[in-house]
Amino acid sequence: MELTTSSPSLTDSVVVDLVYKIPFADALDLFPGRKVYLEDGFAYVPLKDIVAIVLNEFRTKLPKALVLTARILPAVQSDERLQPLLNHLSHSYIGQDYSTQGSAGKISLDQIDSLFTKSFPPCMRQLHKALRDNHHLHHGGRIQYGLFLKGIGLTLEQALQFWKQEFIRGKMDPDKFDKGYSYNIRHSFGKEGKRTDYTPFSCLKIILNNPPGRLLSTIRGLLWVPIPSQ
Question: Domain DNA primase large subunit C-terminal: where (predicted)?
């Protein structure tokens, strides 16, 4: 009863599974909002508020860990067994491989906006929003986003329709799109030029192609690269 009274969002049926018992001193930030129940030196923190506790603990330990790392780094770097690992660490990517084909035609144009809100990674979400807002993307953004859409299942015909509709909303003449932009879309599907069937960019490729500190004159999908306001 005390737990549900102190945290109105909880119910008796789920309170046991959704509350953490921690020393009250670790939950001081939650006291002003009366978000916890206190008893015998312990705070009972709802699951939805535990992130604040974890964040404070991380902030407390991070400076000490960085100092310790700085002290032992020279010794670690001199170890020949670890040098190859350290040298390639910044270029390593252990995430899922999205370069394989086989999903073409599995989504429709009508699904893109709904998938954008709940399933797109943040980088592609930014590109999609920029395209919808401005009805245009510069070359780098079109390549990144176009290959991503191809990878999640758009066919060539769907891709041509998608980009043409959006650019026309930006007052582009249909003939100009057909002459100046459709070639690159067909090229990305392996229908023009060297007829290479290109795959979506990996996270690592996007990161390495857009080093931090370089101002971009176009909107691209990498969130931590500085983007001009103009």
Answer: 115-212
* Residues of the chain below pLDDT 70: 1-17, 90-105, 210-230
CB 189 within 8 A of CB 146: no
Distance in angstroms (rounded) separating the CA atoms of residues 63 and 60: 7
Rg (CA), the chain: 25
Per DSSP bridges, beta strands 19-23 and 42-46 are: antiparallel
Q: Is residue 96 part of a domain?
A: no
Average of per-residue pLDDT values in the chain? 79
Number of domains the chain contains: 2
The phi and psi torsions of 50 (rounded to 5 degrees) equal -70, -25
Distances (CA, A) of 91 to 15, 204, 208: 44, 7, 8
Residues 120 and 49 in one domain: no
Whether 134 and 181 map to the same domain: the answer is: yes
- Range of the structural domain that residue 61 is part of: 19-73
pTM of the model: 0.54
- Residues 62 and 123 both lie in one domain: no
The DSSP string of 12-52 is TTTTTTSEEEEEGGGGGGGTTTT-SEEETTEEEEEGGGHHH
